[in-house]
Amino acid sequence: xxxxxxxxxxxxxxxxxxxxxxxxxxxxxxxxxxxxxxxxxxxxxxxxxxxxxxxxxxxxxxxxxxxxxxxxxxxxxxxxxxxxxxxxxxxxxxxxxxxxxxxxxxxxxxxxxxxxxxxxxxxxxxxxxxxxxxxxxxxxxxxxxxxxxxxxxxxxxxxxxxxxxxxxxxxxxxxxxxxxxxxxxxxxxxxxxxxxxxxxxxxxxxxxxxxxxxxxxxxxxxxxxxxxxxxxxxxxxxxxxxxxxxxxxxxxxxxxxxxxxxxxxxxxxxxxxxxxxxxxxxxxxxxxxxxxxxxxxxxxxxxxxxxxxxxxxxxxxxxx
Length: 320
Hints:
- 38% of the residues lie in helices and 25% in strands.
- The protein is an alpha/beta fold and 320 residues long.
- The chain has two domains: 3-208, TIM Barrel; 211-319, 2,3-Dihydroxybiphenyl 1,2-Dioxygenase, domain 1 (Roll).
- The strands form three sheets. It has an eight-stranded mixed sheet, with helices on one face.
- Helix 6 links the parallel strand 5 and strand 6.
- Pathway: Carbohydrate acid metabolism; 2-dehydro-3-deoxy-D-gluconate degradation; D-glyceraldehyde 3-phosphate and pyruvate from 2-dehydro-3-deoxy-D-gluconate: step 2/2.
- This is 2-dehydro-3-deoxy-phosphogluconate aldolase.
- It holds the Pfam family Aldolase.
- It catalyses: 2-dehydro-3-deoxy-6-phospho-D-gluconate = D-glyceraldehyde 3-phosphate + pyruvate.
């Protein structure tokens, strides 16, 4: 997969933006970045699109900006010259796709049926847009098409919102979802960029689904660990479960048999998508200790500690 598309996969959500006024480009980009989604697909349906892309990429150079609703090779050139790093189209136009492929420009054309997907494969693509997602059969349609085309991945757009977002992202053939609920046209025209920032942050939090998993307590040795876990069992009926390095009391309390990370212990936060969570937290400046990474039998990351402590506790992420 192209490096730009890999970044989009880590982002998880691509805000689909329609701009009628060039002056809205900078404050909208600011709102998206501050809300945690430094990414936008600017639809090429308006006269303001080209200049808006130029402003966004100039004032926010770390932002991932693409052009959507691209229908011609001339529009590809205009978008790329303005700073767009990826191209999205509503349907599969072989001429446009070939042009992008030849120039090394990431392109995700819209595909809504197996014939479209086969054309995309023939053109050398491994990611396509699924559009209009909900109207074209939604997640069930994507799963049906993904079965025979095992190497193809999808980016659904159209009818995606905060209510169905994670149901799409839970399917491993979907790299990200496009959506406009956090940047709807009315909010942009009204200049409600603080509201857009808040909705963007809500969208990211909804996607990542952070929840407290358990609190870890550092005991000096196994005897003390057993005593602490026993106390919680007697007090609250939290059943003890003895492991190799710790003893759990129920699901929410882990007592370490020997001191581990954190002066007082650790706090485990579970997330829907650990790789995306790491990406988004790193965007905010947080760092991770890769020496603490734990993987499952398939080599997939399942747990990782942040560097440093909060209130004397180390903090780590856990894949749900």
